[in-house]
């Protein structure tokens, strides 16, 4: 008769997941073993790294995003661009003077500030630092129309006004519920013969994302992934009958803001987009780590509706593999044997499961 006895068995325990490596879009997060298994306890199972996708994003320095701004008239040295320059800490109590970090309109009736984001976003909230009394009776418009300087677009609401903070420049928030697709954000103050002073504008937006593995159809995007090649077929963004005058939104981007180069030739190695057969097509003929991540495009339907397509791609997924078990540590009776990982999981592949050490008995 024989048996093994371990009276202080401790199972493996994982620590908490780290924060995602990105603030918007496709990234990764990791965790580490906080307690290793001892005395025959169970090893930890599951991955140490996994994909994380942040779908609620924040845009702050809008000029760095490529946005432009204009207003119904500039006060000297107070241009509209000061509302999108990323300077979100104005001096408390500042007002109309040349050294201010805020934009300011001329004295007028119903003054407005328009921001062109250069691409449509699914806007869920608009944040603005509005100086003092300028925050009274302000409406926030979001949409894709330029008619009437964008003032015909959907009104998300009005920022709250705090009379006790009338001499301060503070953040004021307006939620767009449900979120609104928009290329333009416009602030208008309903007032007679007065100013609109806006120090900074930021906004939150939502990503519509599907994680794709191997063969998947998402919103008409039918394709297959070859782990050694990339996408086997190109993905269409939208249709345009005129290659020289297609909608400006009809462009693929990588990881939200990175432009993808255009190519006029047929399939070649790399990542690029091509206008062919009335479609803007994305080719991913690469398995390099730089080709992984979030791909997205937007285009306007004939009725003006904005359509968005996006997906994340990992084309070189490798699962973990165990090596062979070692010989038993004894030639007779009760011992142990071990094994080690011969191939680590990469690019979201499955981690090895099961113990790295087990009991062996030589009878």
**Morphology:** elongated
How much of the residues is beta strand, in percent?
35-45%
Per DSSP E runs of 2 or more residues, the count of β-strands stands at 27
Order of helices and strands: EEEEEEEEEEEEEEEEEEEEEEEEEEE
Give me the Rg, rounded.
28 Å
- Given as residue ranges, the uncertain stretches (5+ residues, pLDDT < 50) are 91-99, 209-228, 240-249
Largest sheet data: 8 strands, antiparallel
What is the structural class?
mainly beta
Molecular structure report:
With 363 residues, the chain is mainly β. 0% of the residues lie in helices and 44% in strands. The protein is built from no helices and 27 strands. Strands 5, 6, 7, 8, 9, 10, 11 and 12 form an 8-stranded antiparallel β-sheet that branches. It has a 5-stranded mixed β-sheet with strand order 13-23-22-18-19, with no helix packed on it. Strands 14-15-16 form a 3-stranded antiparallel β-sheet, with no helix packed on it. It starts with 12 loop residues before the first strand and ends with a strand.
Key attributes of the depicted protein:
single chain; 363 residues; mainly beta
Question: Brief description of this entry?
Answer:
This protein is mainly β and 363 residues long. It contains no helices and 27 strands.
């Amino acid at each position: 008769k024989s048996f093994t006895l371990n009276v202080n068995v401790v199972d493996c325990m994982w620590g908490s997941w780290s924060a995602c490596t990105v603030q918007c879009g496709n990234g990764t997060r990791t965790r580490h073993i906080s307690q290793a298994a001892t005395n025959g306890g169970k090893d930890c199972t599951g991955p140490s790294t996994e994909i994380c996708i942040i779908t609620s994003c924040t845009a702050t320095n809008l000029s760095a995003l490529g946005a432009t701004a204009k207003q119904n008239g500039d006060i000297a040295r107070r241009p509209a661009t000061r509302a999108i320059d990323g300077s979100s800490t104005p001096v408390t109590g500042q007002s109309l003077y040349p050294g201010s970090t805020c934009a300011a309109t001329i004295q007028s009736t119903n003054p407005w500030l328009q921001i062109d984001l250069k691409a449509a976003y699914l806007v869920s909230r608009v944040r603005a630092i509005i100086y003092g009394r300028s925050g009274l009776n302000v409406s926030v418009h979001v949409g894709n129309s330029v008619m009437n300087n964008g003032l015909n677009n959907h009104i998300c609401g009005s920022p709250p006004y705090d009379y006790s903070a009338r001499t301060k420049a503070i953040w004021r928030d307006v939620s767009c519920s449900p979120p609104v697709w928009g290329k333009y954000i416009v602030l208008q103050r309903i007032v007679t013969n007065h100013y609109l002073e806006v120090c900074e504008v930021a906004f939150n937006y939502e990503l519509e994302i599907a994680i794709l593995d191997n063969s998947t159809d998402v919103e008409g995007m039918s394709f297959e992934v070859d782990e050694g090649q990339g996408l086997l077929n190109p993905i269409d963004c939208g249709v345009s009958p005129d290659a020289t005058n297609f909608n400006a939104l009809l462009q693929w981007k990588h990881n939200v803001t990175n432009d993808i180069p255009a190519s006029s030739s047929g399939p070649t190695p790399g990542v690029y987009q091509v206008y062919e057969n009335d479609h803007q097509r994305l080719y991913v003929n690469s398995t390099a780590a730089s080709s992984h991540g979030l791909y997205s495009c937007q285009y306007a339907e004939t009725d003006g509706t904005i359509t968005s397509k996006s997906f994340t791609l990992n084309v070189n997924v490798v699962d973990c593999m165990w090596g062979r078990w070692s010989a038993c540590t004894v030639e007779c009776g009760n011992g142990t044997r071990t094994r080690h990982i011969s191939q680590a999981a990469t690019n979201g592949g499955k981690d090895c499961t099961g113990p790295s050490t087990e009991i062996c008995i030589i009878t």
